Amino acid sequence: MSTIVLLTLTGLGLSALYFLVASGLSLVFGLADVLNFAHGLFLGVGAYATWWAAGNLPGAGPDGFGFVVAAGFGVLAGVLVAVLVELVLIRPLYSRTIAQVLVTVGLSLAGVALLQAVWGADPRPFPRPEWTRQVTSVFGAKVPNAGLLLIVAAALVLAGLLAFLRFTRYGLVIRAGVENREMVTALGIDVRKAFTLVFAIGGAAAALAGALGGIYFGSVSPGQGGSLLIFGFIVVVIGGMGSVVGSAYAAVAVGLLQQFVNYYGTSGLGDVCVVALLAVVLLLRPQGIAGKVATA
């Protein structure tokens, strides 16, 4: 029984990390129709900015409120990079899909190279708060606190996003833009501000994933964002493009499947099963779990 509890909670911790990456991807694609392959760069920037701030920023540190300050600095860095990317590189290319893909892929590769040039290619130990190195007993299972932190953070982000989309003016614009961007534009609403806003939200969520992912893995490396981005895209497709709730459902399914199969099967088999799940969803329900069928 304790093994099932442990696998479930650690799988949910992994699911939470995937959701933080996928939530921004889902919003950006749903509203702006942009496949942002540079999203992993925002994660890497958030992780390295948090790592740097914990050792150099006054008031920041690896423990207590100091780590909150460091993580906040990392999230802010992710937001600034995301907004800059949208304004300078993406905005001129909204009507050119292939150019978007080429630019964001190139930016992703350049970002990894830049991080390697500044901090080297080897993983660096992440400044984790002491309590995240410990475990909590849950029904006899000793669950790492880092995974529990991710679960709580993802739940708060999901609740915050849903509240923002439901109860704020810009949230209404974003929801309407996901449904029918042409109609929103015809009503005289400047959706370009909403585009920048969803990039900022996506950058914040990705940077938070970078900061908390550093705690989860215990290290930070230039290629970390790229590997997590793959699973982020899988989650977005399974959940349904543009659906934050669908991404949450899909993240839970992917994280639990990966964790259980890797434990009871052979190492790496969980990744194969995740890809198989993606294939099944694309064949049986191409619009995803919570996506809507496209109409002519």
Automatic annotation (TrEMBL):
Molecular function via GO: transmembrane transporter activity
Membrane topology note: Multi-pass membrane protein
Cellular component terms (Gene Ontology): plasma membrane
Record-linked InterPro entries: ABC_transp_permease, BCAA_transport_permease
Entry annotated with the keyword Cell membrane: yes
UniProt keyword Coiled coil, yes or no: no
Main location: membrane
Keywords, alphabetical: Amino-acid transport, Cell membrane, Membrane, Transmembrane, Transmembrane helix, Transport
Pfam families (alphabetical): BPD_transp_2
Coiled coil ranges: none
Subcellular location: Cell membrane
Membrane-traversing stretches: 6-27, 34-53, 65-89, 101-121, 146-165, 194-217, 229-256, 263-284
GO biological process per UniProt: amino acid transport
Family: Belongs to the binding-protein-dependent transport system permease family. LivHM subfamily.
Designated name of the protein: Amino acid/amide ABC transporter membrane protein 1, HAAT family
Species annotation: Micromonospora pallida
Lineage: Bacteria, Bacillati, Actinomycetota, Actinomycetes, Micromonosporales
